Amino acid sequence: MRKKKPLQTVGIWNVKTMVESGVMMLLIIGALVTIVFYYVDIDHEEQKASRPVVYDTSVYDSLEGCDLFSGKWVHDNDSYPLYKDLDCPYIYGDFACGQYGRMDSKYQQWRWQPHACNLPRFDAKEVLERLRGKRVIFIGDSVTRNQWVSMVCMLQTVIPLGRKKMEKVRHVSLFTFKAFDYDVSIDFYWAPLLVESNGDHPSKHRTNERIVRIKSIEKHAKNWINADVLVFNSYLWWRMPILKILNGSFEDPKQYNIVDNHNGYKMVLKTWSDWLHTNINHTRTHSYFMSMTATHHKGVEWGKKGNQNCFNETEPITKDGFWESGSDLKMLMMLESSLNNLKTKGVNVQMINITQLTQNRKDAHPSIHRLHYSPLSDEQRSKPSSYADCTHWCLPGVPDIWNELLLAHVLRKHK
Ligand SMILES: *[C@@H]1O[C@H](CO)[C@@H](O)[C@H](O)[C@H]1NC(C)=O
Ligand SMILES: *[C@@H]1O[C@H](CO)[C@@H](O)[C@H](O)[C@H]1NC(C)=O
Ligand SMILES: *[C@@H]1O[C@H](CO)[C@@H](O)[C@H](O)[C@H]1NC(C)=O
Ligand SMILES: *[C@@H]1O[C@H](CO)[C@@H](O)[C@H](O)[C@H]1NC(C)=O
Ligand SMILES: *[C@@H]1O[C@H](CO)[C@@H](O)[C@H](O)[C@H]1NC(C)=O
């Protein structure tokens, strides 16, 4: 008993010393790491200066006049996937299928083959070089985020550690990826309904009732002005049957109208078009709109029985012109008509028409292989298809192709 006390004291003293020396060690290691990075950076700069990169700039120009969206999926495990999921630290819980137990990988190995021409082989360095000095912003919902993460993954593998940075901008729904050596910024702005709504928080937006201020876009849109490329996408959140349209502010939510989703979509496209027309310098900023993407909730549409969906699917649908019933053609036509209307005013917004090409890819959704935000019930466990995500897309995968199609248009314009 007597010997215990001094021992304890010694023990505490030891811990204290250990903490202190540990802090010192960390400081020393930190300093060393900083020095090492400093030299790595200098080394990198010198290499760049002595070996200028020259790329063939004609590849993208030669696509002029080719309808890139009409084509077919071809299995090509030589060229795809464009990156490995474990090599991209930014793949988010909803898209990280491999990390959440998806074992098959054929879904990553499909090339989009336009009927009338060939897409250039993707080269991250060339793309970064041609985007030099540019800021690209993806604006929209979780499908947009899916595409943004894909773009970052496609580009980031060729950028050394310390020469890139990913961050959330404070007090704004803006996430930004920067490639320092190219002065390139690839951003994502969360605005699932484009205008102000009760879904504006990037992560806390679950509710049974969607409330929208249909004419109020400025609060979000003021963050989009100084970009070179704007990529819009707003479809998924307009799929709920009705929306509450607020006349006043969220502080005084007494005056509202209930509208159906089609009327709401028409109204928001009007707000968006008017804003784009009057606020954007279209010589500097080129705008794109991603068309709606397919979901695969109804297995009966491709010959499955009962209530099956994309769960356990590993092959694309082969039928030409397949169309799943969740894709709302009427909304696509509203978008088209808005874009045509803008065109008559001299504003050219290119639609990246990925609707048809996503129809066949029932094999490419996360299904059950993703982060689950709440624990699964026993009932769910016994019937995995009941909680399958057939809306988003695994990475690497189909969104990589959307980005190749987007880049084919962007890089032709920004010479
Ligand atoms: C989108 O592309 C498909 C395939 O080429 C075509 O059938 C469809 O008409 C296009 N839709 C629009 C709105 O351009
Ligand atoms: C690529 O696919 C072909 C069939 O299309 C297959 O024979 C080959 O083993 C595959 N290669 C790899 C590396 O997976
Ligand atoms: C909305 O508010 C405006 C004035 O701010 C008013 O003129 C209009 O009647 C209101 N509409 C509805 C449906 O309450
Ligand atoms: C629009 O952008 C172009 C290209 O950056 C620039 O030359 C022009 O001055 C801008 N126009 C206005 C009105 O700011
Ligand atoms: C998944 O599909 C394979 C055949 O494609 C089948 O053998 C297997 O039973 C299916 N698994 C489940 C859990 O349905």
TrEMBL record:
Q: Which domain of life is it from?
A: Eukaryota
Recorded protein name is Uncharacterized protein
| Source species | Cichorium intybus
